[in-house]
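In response to reviewer comment 3 from the previous cycle, which asked for concrete evidence that the modeling workflow produces usable outputs, we include below a single protein chain processed end to end. The sequence was submitted unchanged, and the resulting structure tokens are shown without manual editing.
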Amino acid sequence: MKLYYSPGACSLSPHIALQEAGLAFTPVLVSTKSHKLQDGSDFYEINPLGYVPVLELDDGSRLREGPAIVQYIADQAPHKNLAPANGTLGRYRLQEWLNFISTELHKGFSPLFNPATPDAYKTIARDKLLQRMQWMDSQLEGKEWLLGEHFSVADGYLFTVCNWGRLVAVDLSGLQHLQAYLARVGARPGVQAALKAEGLLK
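The workflow returned the following structure tokens.
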């Protein structure tokens, strides 16, 4: 398998999932500015939408969209408990979290990374994100992981997105349950391996 990624982008989530699953893969660096690979080839030929992540399977087929990719990865290593079994309520809970993180948090950060976004709108976007993060903080009270006793691919995704806060002045420091949770996720060997591989951890 190949994972097309850009350091610290949302592709960190499947990178964490692959490390946690213990699956063999080749990371392929993509420039989000030039949309080129390191060999100079055009990333648009891999993904016409131009963004990461993309997971290329051994048969050459490709999966786009992080929530789909991480569930595929989890299903390749069911003994790692990165996702509840298909058809169970637990699996739908996982999908519930993946959808929330994707639509309410991930996309909420997008205008803050866009230099063309007016400052007035950035203020609105930050306020909305902080409200969602405060709700997340309340959901983590008394819980080790989002789904309970097992670390899941949703935890890797939430960790990835929350790390963007410091880059765009979304202050999460006052959210004690979220901060403790992020420290737990960040201490996992699989997460540390992904961060180091992307040059995000010395």
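The mean pLDDT is 97. We consider this sufficient to address the reviewer's concern, and the full set will be provided in the supplementary archive.
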